[in-house]
C-alpha cells in the first residue's frame, strides 16, 4: 500500500525498525530469562543436595543418611513442583530416595557437581548430581546425591522475568512513538504554514515566496516553486502578448478585407470590382499565410515540450523539394534561386519532425525580403561533425543591433513594408530549439544582405 502522508511515512520508517529492534531485544530477553532461571534453579538444587550431603555419616560401621526437611523446603512455591532425590553409597547401593531415578553415568570427583535434564515419570525434570566424600572412610569413595525437580517453577520464573522485560520494551516503544509523533508535528509545522500560505494566495499572484523564515531543508523546494512561478509568469505573459499580437495581426487584414468588399459592392463599373477582388484575394492569401504560420508556431511549441517523433532525414532531398515548391514565387520576383551542395545525401537527426517548416520559412523569408532581380542561395555542407544549412540573399539585411529581436514573435524592422507577419524567424527559432540546432544571423562576406546559418545535429550513430 502506498503511503501518501509524509507523517505516516516518517512514522513507518522510524517505528518499523524500532519495532523490529524491540522484537529482537524481546527474543534476547527471553534467552536471558531462561538462562537466569536456570542459574537460580541450579543453585537451589545444589543447595538442597549439599544439605542432604551434610547428613551422610558412618554409624555402627554403616553409612547412614537423614533427609532434613530444610533440604526440601527450598523448593516451596505456588508452582506445585514435585521433588525427587536419591542417595547412593560407594558401591552404588541405595541409601535413600527414589530407586527409579536414573544414575549419572560419568564419574565425579569429590565435591563436584553436574546438571542435566531428563524425562522422569512423564515429566521434564532438572537434576543435579553432587559427589560427597565420606571423611570417616575415604577409601570407600564418595556418596552420590541426586536431587531432581519438575520445571514448573523454573518456567514460571523465566516467564515472569521475560514478561517484565517485554513490558518495559513495549513501554519504551510507545513512549518513543509518542515522542516521534510530537516531534514530527512540531517539525512539520513550517511545511503546514507553507501550505496555508499557498492556499491563501490569490490566483493571479506571482510574487516569489519569502525564504527567510523557511527551514533549510525546505529552501530548495521554495526556490523551485519560486523559479516555477517566475517561468510560469514569463510563459503566461508571452502567451498573452502572443494572443494580443495575433488578434491585432488578424484584425487588421479582416478590417481591410471588409473595406475592400464594401468598396467592391459600391463600385458601379466592372474594372473597380475586379480591382477590389484582386485586393481581396491578396488579403485572403496574406491571412491564410498568417494563420498557417500561427499553426506552425503552435506545433513547434508542442514539439519543444515533448519530442516524441525523432528520425533521421535526408536534408538534400528536403531542400530540393521545397525549392521546387517555391520556384514559382522566385520566378514571379525574377530572383535567382540556387542550391549549392557537395554530397547527394546528407542525413541529419530531426528531433522535431519539422525540418521542412524550418527550411521553408528561411527560404520564403529570403524570397520575400530580397528585391526583384536579386539572388537567393541555399547551401548544405558538413563542418566539425555537424551539418550546416546556409540561406544567403542580397536583400536589405538586418542591422546587427536588431538581430536578436527579429526572433521575437511579430517583431518587424522599422521601415519594413513587406507583406510579412514577423513570424518566420520566430518559427525557425522554435523548430531549431526543438531539434537541438543553432541559428546564427550574419552579413555575407561578398556583398550586403543576410546570411542565416543553421547548425543541425548529424545522423545518430547506429
Structure description:
The protein has 462 residues and is of the alpha+beta class. Among the domains are: 154 residues, Beta-Lactamase, CATH 3.30.450; 150 residues, Histidine kinase-like ATPase, C-terminal domain (Heat Shock Protein 90, 2-Layer Sandwich). The chain is built from 9 helices and 14 strands. The strands form 4 sheets. Strands 4-3-7-6-5 form a 5-stranded antiparallel beta sheet. Strands 9-11-12-14-13 form a 5-stranded mixed beta sheet, covered by helices on one side. The chain has a two-stranded antiparallel ribbon with strand order 1-2. Helix 5 packs antiparallel against helix 6, helix 6 packs parallel to helix 9 and helix 7 runs parallel beside helix 8. The mean pLDDT is 79.
Percent of sequence in beta strands: 15-25%
Q: Please give the CATH class of one domain.
A: Alpha Beta
CATH architecture descriptor name of one domain? 2-Layer Sandwich
Instruction: Enumerate the strands of the largest sheet in spatial order, edge to edge or round the barrel.
Output: 4-3-7-6-5
Overall outline: rod-shaped
> Strand pairing plus helix content: what structural class?
alpha+beta
Largest sheet: 5 strands, antiparallel
- Provide a count of the helices: 9
Radius of gyration: 51 Å
**Span from first to last CA?**
43 Å
- Spans of at least 5 consecutive residues whose pLDDT stays below 50 are none
Q: Helical percent range?
A: 40-55%
Question: Helices and strands, in N-to-C order?
Answer: HEEHEEEEEHHHHEHEEHEEHEE
User: What is the CATH topology of one domain?
Assistant: Beta-Lactamase
What oligomeric state best describes the polypeptide chains here? single chain
Strand tally:
14
Amino acid at each position: 500500500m502506498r503511503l501518501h502522508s509524509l507523517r505516516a511515512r516518517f512514522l513507518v520508517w522510524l517505528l518499523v525498525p524500532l519495532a523490529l529492534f524491540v522484537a529482537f531485544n524481546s527474543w534476547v530477553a527471553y534467552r536471558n530469562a531462561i538462562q537466569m532461571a536456570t542459574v537460580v534453579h541450579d543453585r537451589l538444587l545444589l543447595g538442597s543436595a549439599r544439605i542432604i550431603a551434610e547428613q551422610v555419616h558412618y554409624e555402627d560401621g554403616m553409612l547412614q543418611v537423614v533427609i532434613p526437611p530444610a533440604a526440601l523446603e527450598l523448593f516451596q512455591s505456588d508452582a506445585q513442583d514435585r521433588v525427587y532425590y536419591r542417595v547412593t553409597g560407594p558401591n552404588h547401593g541405595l541409601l535413600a530416595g527414589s530407586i527409579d531415578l536414573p544414575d549419572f553415568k560419568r564419574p565425579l570427583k569429590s565435591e563436584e557437581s553436574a546438571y542435566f535434564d531428563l524425562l522422569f515419570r512423564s515429566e521434564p525434570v532438572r537434576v543435579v548430581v553432587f559427589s560427597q566424600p565420606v571423611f570417616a572412610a575415604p577409601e570407600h569413595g564418595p556418596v552420590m546425591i541426586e536431587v531432581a525437580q519438575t520445571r514448573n517453577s523454573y518456567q514460571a520464573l523465566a516467564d515472569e522475568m521475560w514478561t517484565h522485560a517485554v513490558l518495559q520494551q513495549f513501554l519504551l516503544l510507545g513512549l518513543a512513538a509518542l515522542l516521534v509523533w510530537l516531534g514530527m508535528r512540531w517539525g512539520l509545522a513550517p511545511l503546514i504554514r507553507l501550505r496555508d500560505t499557498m492556499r491563501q494566495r490569490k490566483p493571479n499572484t506571482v510574487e516569489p515566496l519569502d525564504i527567510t523564515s523557511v527551514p533549510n531543508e525546505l529552501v530548495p523546494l521554495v526556490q523551485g516553486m519560486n523559479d516555477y512561478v517566475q517561468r510560469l509568469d514569463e510563459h503566461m505573459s508571452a502567451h498573452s502578448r502572443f494572443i494580443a499580437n495575433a488578434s491585432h495581426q488578424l484584425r487588421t487584414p479582416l478590417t481591410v478585407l471588409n473595406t475592400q468588399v464594401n468598396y467592391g459592392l459600391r463600385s458601379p463599373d466592372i474594372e473597380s470590382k475586379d480591382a477590389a477582388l484582386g485586393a481581396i484575394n491578396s488579403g485572403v492569401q496574406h491571412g491564410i499565410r498568417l494563420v498557417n504560420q500561427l499553426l506552425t508556431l503552435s506545433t513547434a511549441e508542442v514539439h519543444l515540450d515533448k519530442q516524441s517523433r525523432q528520425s533521421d532525414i535526408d536534408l538534400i532531398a528536403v531542400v530540393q523539394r521545397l525549392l521546387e515548391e517555391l520556384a514559382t514565387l522566385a520566378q514571379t520576383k525574377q530572383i535567382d534561386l540556387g542550391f549549392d551542395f557537395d554530397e547527394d545525401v546528407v542525413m541529419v537527426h530531426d528531433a522535431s519532425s519539422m525540418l521542412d517548416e524550418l527550411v521553408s520559412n528561411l527560404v520564403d523569408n529570403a524570397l520575400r525580403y530580397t528585391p526583384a532581380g536579386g539572388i537567393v542561395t541555399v547551401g548544405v555542407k558538413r563542418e566539425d561533425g555537424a551539418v550546416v544549412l546556409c540561406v544567403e540573399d542580397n536583400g536589405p539585411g538586418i542591422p546587427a543591433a536588431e538581430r536578436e529581436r527579429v526572433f521575437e514573435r511579430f517583431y518587424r524592422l522599422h521601415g519594413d513594408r513587406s507583406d510579412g507577419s514577423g513570424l518566420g524567424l520566430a518559427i525557425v527559432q522554435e523548430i531549431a530549439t526543438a531539434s537541438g540546432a543553432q541559428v546564427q544571423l550574419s552579413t555575407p562576406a561578398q556583398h550586403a544582405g543576410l546570411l542565416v546559418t543553421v547548425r543541425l545535429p548529424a545522423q545518430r550513430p547506429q
